[in-house]
Design goal:
The chain is of the alpha+beta class. It is built from 17 helices and 16 strands. A 5-stranded mixed beta sheet has the order 3-2-1-4-5. It has a 5-stranded antiparallel beta sheet with strand order 15-14-13-12-16, covered by helices on one side. The termini are far apart.
Length: 459
């Protein structure tokens, strides 16, 4: 099975939009063994500059009878299909191929991987990471440098050395996944720009050419999450690639602050790509399906039924499902009974000892329903007490402070760690108060349930 298509091209110059391909080679491999290879000269339909001939040895006479690119285009598509496109300085080779296909009216898109970037990571400390330097460093035997097949074979050798430095498949896959994320970016952004993004928790914003925010996201690691957006081929990724002109961010330090800020920002800004999350209404409701003699369960309905007692409301069905799942795990309720596990027999949680067996009728209905009643009480209770949550801040010595008052989340802010001993009113002065948001209440609630070491101060 081919996993990688290692590509090398020779060209008439260094500018993809102006120059043309004179030779292409593709080596197919699985990461350990070469499966197949293909190489051909290409008629660039223009003269080759003498300086290029001096470097590559490819002359005008050599390419005069060679196939034109359109004659080998189908072969290139087939060979690289379902494989990671690998090259040494991949942006160069990939850009030229995309331009050639663009001239044919075809959009050529492949996940791509750069052995220059991987070599810097895996073999640190070398003076140079050019292909020639690595060939000399590893004593790789090459007969014709600057000819496509020989250089592609050398690049394949380097790829094998990179992968062999990682003993397990999981480690190799992590390396490759990280590398793939570095190479597929919007035209206006460089890998240097992405690498300059902080490896910190916060909220990030994708903006179009006019400066309008088109997407808002949050992550514990802003840089890694931004890279992930460009690692897969989805409609959302394509739209981000086509429309993103700049990326900004705001570090929060606290994951809870990032979750809440993302929620508020999406609903205020209404970014076009955050379609589901930008809903500022809460049309989905959780109610109880309480049939006599059966296990009670939560049910999600859309638009309020006046005959149903609503426990809690959500902006999306997924948010409601996530909350039910959290409740089920906290109170050891059955995910299958609650419609969140579609397995034929017992639910997955039962198999790992986190469900008491309602899915296979092992737990009595009365015992289960008593615990369900506690969960139902928890879901409808926003907050009975007033309290402050203290989390890590954006920098060392800073703390992020959240206020929950009168049953709802009211806002958060930042204080110096040395000021954490201040009185309530002084701490509250640092808070940026905001309007009540049921989704923020839910985020606070879920965060507290899943993080038992959160610092809470009642008042």
């Amino acid at each position: 099975m081919k996993n990688y298509a290692v590509v090398d091209i020779e060209t008439t110059g260094g500018i993809a939009r102006r120059d043309k391909i004179t030779e292409i080679a593709i080596v197919l491999c699985d990461g350990k063994n070469i499966i197949d290879s293909y190489a051909t000269l290409i008629n660039p339909e223009r003269s080759i500059p003498p300086e290029i001939t001096r470097i590559t040895g490819i002359t005008n006479n050599m390419v005069s009878d060679a196939p034109k690119f359109f004659e080998v285009a189908k072969k290139v598509v087939e060979l690289t299909q379902n494989a990671v496109f690998v090259a040494h300085n991949v942006r160069f080779d990939y850009a030229f191929l995309r331009e050639e296909f663009k001239a044919l009216g075809y959009t050529y898109t492949r996940r791509n991987l750069c052995t220059v970037k991987l070599s810097r990571q895996v073999f640190p400390g070398l003076r140079s990471y050019s292909l020639g330097s690595l060939i000399r460093h590893f004593n790789i035997q090459v007969e014709n440098r600057h000819r496509a097949l020989d250089d592609a074979m050398a690049t394949t050798d380097i790829l094998f050395r990179i992968l062999s430095a990682y003993p397990t498949q999981k480690a190799r896959q992590k390396l490759i996944s990280k590398g793939v994320k570095l190479t597929k970016l919007p035209r206006s952004l460089t890998s240097e720009f992405i690498e300059a993004l902080p490896e910190a928790c916060g909220v990030y914003y994708f903006m179009n050419e006019s400066g309008r925010i088109i997407y808002v996201g949050k992550s514990k690691n802003i840089r890694d999450r931004v890279k992930q957006h460009f690692s897969k081929y989805t409609r959302k990724t394509d739209k981000l690639l086509q429309t993103t002109s700049d990326i900004s961010y705001e570090v929060t330090g606290s994951e809870l602050a990032a979750l809440i800020k993302e929620s508020y920002d999406i609903k205020e800004i209404q970014p076009e790509i955050n379609r589901i999350q930008r809903n500022s209404t809460f049309p989905y409701h959780v109610v109880i399906d309480r049939k006599k003699g059966q296990y009670h369960k939560f049910e999600i309905i859309k638009d309020q039924d006046p005959l149903s007692f609503v426990l809690s409301s959500y902006s999306s069905r997924q948010s409601a499902r996530s909350h039910i799942k959290q409740l089920s795990q906290n109170f050891e309720l059955c995910l299958k009974v609650n419609g969140l596990d579609n397995t034929q027999n017992s639910c997955f949680e039962y198999k790992i000892g986190k469900c008491r067996g309602a899915c296979v009728d092992e737990e009595t209905i009365s015992t289960y329903n008593e615990r369900f009643a506690l969960a139902a009480e928890a879901i409808q209770r926003t907050f009975e007490d007033n309290f402050i949550i203290i989390e890590e801040g954006r920098t060392r010595g800073e703390r992020c402070v959240f206020v929950v008052e009168d049953g709802h989340f009211r806002g958060f802010g930042f204080i110096e760690e040395e000021d954490a001993h201040l009185g309530l009113e002084e701490i509250k002065e640092s808070i940026l108060y905001t309007k009540i948001n049921p989704e923020a209440d839910m985020l606070i609630r879920s965060y507290l349930w899943s993080n038992d070491k959160v610092e809470i101060i009642p008042f």
